[in-house]
Design goal:
The chain has about 350 residues and is mainly beta. It contains two helices and 22 strands. It is rod-shaped.
């Protein structure tokens, strides 16, 4: 309540009445207000941050008026000495690390961390080789569980020979058919046989079974054109980066912005860089309160972009108020030179 009354004392002048001693004409006129009682020290009105300026001003002890509003420069980032790991790398996907500000969430020097690579266990036979076809073996990553496949060679020692001979071709009429096993045995013993070695697989083109994404493995396969044996493989994840940079946060007069290179298929970004604040675009100074001989005035300017205002005081006008009248005290001259008659 006392503060409110003080504001009224500062803003409202007390009216003073003058009476003509001849005709008793009465005239009232405002007396000068008390004027502001300015503090000696600045008061911080808005604390500055890393990127945003603050403000300070001189306050009146009697009311809420201020003067000499002054901008406080942004503090600037307080960068930590060491990198912080923001995203841990996996076997196939890179991670990232950056230097953090101790006061806010800003980062700089964003650096990619290479994938760790798979850590495979021992090979396990998943399909045995035979005397006519190769087999398959597998091994699994002990970190992410990915399974790798590899073909094995034909096993020439895997034949399971029969105990007795088999007649592969019947004799023609020109050659009498053997009548007993001993003759058949003799004929087979005299025939030459040649083993044609099995050739390696000849695979066709790879076929995508499951497409890869920016972060997940895909699966592909191809088949031998001779026997149809299928071999599978992985498709490594990969981002498809845009050719140009994108402005993610537009800079303002006092706050920095940010741009980066975006992936066309997901929200991932890389090469994140800061954009410096633009700074204020100030207008010309304009008078807000005209000064008088008893009180200071005030002028201001505003930023044409963000609208923030800056104020400063105008000094009091020089001069002294004085009543002037004729010898009969029937008129007086005011401060502007105008004659006011009774």
């Amino acid at each position: 309540m006392e503060r409110k009354q003080n504001r009224q004392i500062v803003k409202k002048a007390v009216r003073k009445k003058h009476i003509c001693s001849v005709c008793q004409f009465e005239e009232e006129r405002d007396t000068a207000p008390l004027g502001h009682d300015w503090n000696a020290e600045y008061t911080i009105d808005v604390k500055p941050t890393c990127t945003k300026p603050g403000s300070k001003s001189i306050h009146c002890s009697r009311c809420d008026a201020t003067k000499d509003v002054t901008e406080i420069e942004p503090l600037g980032h307080d960068w930590e000495d060491d990198f912080t790991i923001d995203v841990k790398p996996t076997c196939t996907q890179p991670g990232s690390k950056s230097v953090h500000c101790s006061r806010c969430d800003a980062t700089k020097d964003v650096t990619e961390i290479e994938p760790t690579g798979h850590s495979f266990g021992e090979w396990t036979v998943s399909k045995d080789s035979t005397c006519v076809a190769g087999g398959q073996k597998t091994r699994k990553c002990e970190i992410c569980g990915y399974t790798e496949y590899e073909d094995t060679d034909i096993d020439p020692d895997a034949h399971d020979w029969e105990a007795d001979y088999t007649i592969d071709k019947e004799p023609t009429p020109a050659r009498p058919k053997a009548l007993n096993p001993s003759i058949a045995h003799a004929v087979t013993q005299q025939s030459d046989s040649t083993v044609i070695p099995v050739t390696d697989h000849t695979y066709g083109e790879w076929e995508v079974v499951t497409p890869s994404t920016c972060t997940e493995n895909g699966v592909k396969k191809h088949a031998c054109i001779h026997c149809g044996f299928e071999q599978t493989g992985i498709i490594e994840p990969a981002h498809e980066w845009e050719d140009s940079r994108t402005v993610d946060i537009a800079p303002s007069c006092t706050e920095q912005g940010e741009d980066s290179v975006h992936c066309r298929n997901c929200d991932e970004r890389k090469d994140i860089k800061e954009i410096s604040p633009k700074g204020h675009d100030w207008s010309e100074w304009k008078t807000l309160v005209e000064p008088t001989i008893t009180s200071e005035g005030k002028e201001y300017r505003a930023c044409n972009v963000c609208g923030i205002k800056e104020e400063k005081a105008l000094p009091k006008l020089s001069g002294k108020k004085e009543w002037k009248h004729d010898k009969n005290k029937h008129w007086h001259v005011d401060d502007n030179g105008n004659i006011n008659r009774c």
